[in-house]
Design a protein that fits this description.
Elements: E1 2-3, H1 12-21, E2 39-40, H2 46-159, H3 175-185
Antiparallel strand pairs: 1-2
């Protein structure tokens, strides 16, 4: 409460106690020149102060939370960096292993190609040799068959036997044979003998 005459400010309870005592002057010893003749109410906004305190507390709390989160984020970052380094090392090792296997496979493939070329060349040579042998055998057989046919023809010509004529052991049918058979069956006078 603010006193009208002197302007001093007191709380409501203090001012009431001064009035109850019976003193009608200002408690600040302003004397008779400052009688308590009236006062005006003064309203203080304590909510803003409380709000400012709450805001300060909230800010400090938020800052502490952010600091904790920053520390946690740094720890996670360090952990992730360590895991990334481990994974990168594994990837490098796997890549090196893959390169070694690729070199081994290329070497094995070149060896296989060389072996295949060698085997193919040998197979071709063997096939050519077998084909040549078969041709020689066939030519020999054909020559032998031709020689046998020529020998048979020469033998027949030397014995006087033509193709389709009877051989020397077969009797030839002719007039002499008929005559001999008729002579055997007839008598001295040419008549046929009948038994």
């Amino acid at each position: 409460m603010r006193l009208i005459h002197c302007g001093h400010v007191f709380c409501h309870g203090c001012l009431l106690s001064v009035i109850e005592i019976g003193s009608g002057v200002c408690p600040n010893h302003c004397g008779d020149d400052a009688p308590i003749v009236g006062w005006t109410a003064i309203h203080f906004n304590t909510k803003s102060v409380a709000n400012e305190d709450q805001v300060s507390i909230a800010i400090e709390k938020r800052l502490s939370e952010l600091v904790v989160r920053q520390v946690q984020a740094e720890q996670r970052h360090l952990t992730a960096a360590a895991e990334l380094d481990a994974i990168s090392k594994q990837v490098r090792n796997q890549y090196k292993l893959i390169q070694d296997r690729q070199r081994y496979l290329r070497s094995s493939l070149s060896d296989i190609e060389k072996s295949f070329g060698t085997v193919t060349g040998r197979s071709k040579k063997q096939l050519q040799q077998i084909t040549r042998k078969h041709r020689l055998i066939r030519a020999r057989k054909l020559k032998e068959a031709r020689l046998q046919r020529e020998a048979k023809h020469a033998h027949r010509r030397s014995t006087g036997v033509e193709d389709g004529a009877p051989g020397p052991s077969e009797p030839r049918a002719g007039p002499s044979a008929h005559a001999s058979s008729s002579n055997d069956s007839s008598g001295p006078d040419g008549r046929a003998l009948h038994s």
